[in-house]
Input
Amino acid sequence: MIEIFKQAGESDNQAIADEIIAHPDRYIPPVLFFLAEVLFRNGRYEEAIFWYHAGHIRGAFDTKRCLDKTVHSYLPMLLTYYGAELKKYMGSHLSTLERIVPQVIEWDRNTPHNYDHRWINLRGSDATNLPVNDMDNNELTSAPSDEWQTIEEYVRTEYLKSFRACMEKMKKNRNR
Output
């Protein structure tokens, strides 16, 4: 999907963005990060903030349920790669950010994850050591599915706690 975005013109990118927004449950977090960049470039700033954080929280969950701990550096790399201008914008629009991030948490809680969460598993060293036919075996690469709901709530709680601590720090620095 990211390659389709990159090859499309701006008018086509709008149609692709609208398709992703209509069915966000189908797309892996890197697509949501790229969507955020497209929206930001097109002046859809609040939507860009929303989808950037949606990608972040979904990526955090996918990382947390992956049994290969070598993938833990991949999400921070994505966060560095995507959204540099958007992050500057967010830093100067704290009240908007404070309003949107809790909405993202609720969206995540109420929106199914209908994409293959194992996209992150392919970024770890364990993936290179598994026979190709074993990559389809979820038990080898991810926490048991009966633990996912607990992991999801943990990620949401920690995400919101970390976000609020970051906001306090940014507000203090702004008032200096």
Notes: The chain has a mean pLDDT of 88. The CA atoms of residues 25 and 155 lie 18 Å apart. Residues 148-174 form the longest helix (27 residues).
